[in-house]
Write a structure and sequence with these properties.
By secondary structure, the protein is an alpha+beta fold. The chain contains five helices and eight strands. The protein has a domain of 120 residues: 3-Layer(aba) Sandwich (Aminopeptidase), CATH 3.40.630. Strand 1 and strand 2 form a beta hairpin. 33% of the residues are buried.
Length: 193
């Protein structure tokens, strides 16, 4: 069935671009590398990352996860970045469930325990949002997090993502269904922190 509206972002708009490396004050967002397997496996063995993301990874699973990101970029369904500082990988941020026809995506992030409390996730989310709005021209970016995770709520708020409501029992965690807060930022919402 033909659509009565043109795609918000024409097909090929993402795949024609190289995945960027974004430099901030003391962190860099860079595409994942095959050599990052150990860092990913270690991060997903950390209890709070496991809890909020409801997964762990073996080395083989981490290698497959890393290897999938270039295909997702080419297929225009997502993109993943390692968040790196002088000590190595301190987090991850990814565009998930990207829909260029609708001009939207949602974002996932985590930060290693040693890097928490330094606004690493906030800076990464702000930088990635600026790129997707300025370069890709997405219309809307969303963050959803468990209502039991106030740290993620602060990250989204500090990065300029307005709280829009609660999605009841939307995500299944190891301890059952969690209500999820929904935050969003639109292309014309202005700069973030």
């Amino acid at each position: 069935m033909p659509s009565l509206v043109a795609p918000a972002i024409p097909p090929g708009s993402l795949s024609r671009l190289p995945q960027p490396e974004l430099h901030l004050h003391d962190i860099v967002l860079r595409p994942w590398r095959a050599s990052d397997v150990t860092s990913v496996t270690e991060a997903y063995s950390e209890p709070t990352i496991q809890y909020w993301h409801a997964k762990s990874m073996t080395d083989d699973e981490a290698a497959a996860w890393i290897a999938a990101w270039p295909d997702r970029w080419e297929q225009e369904t997502g993109g993943g970045w390692a968040v790196v500082n002088e000590s190595g990988i301190v987090g991850q941020i990814s565009l998930r469930r990207m829909n260029l026809a609708e001009g939207l995506a949602d974002v996932s992030y985590w930060v290693t325990p040693a890097a928490r409390g330094r606004r690493v996730a906030t800076h990464a989310l702000s930088a990635l949002s600026e790129w997707v709005f300025d370069e890709l021209r997405l219309h809307r970016v969303e963050v959803a997090h468990s209502t039991l995770n106030p740290a993620s709520c602060k990250v989204a708020t500090y990065a300029g993502f307005a709280f829009e409501g609660t999605k009841r029992r939307e995500a299944l965690h190891t301890d059952g269904w969690h209500d999820m807060h929904l935050h969003a930022r639109l292309i014309d919402d202005g700069d973030s922190g």
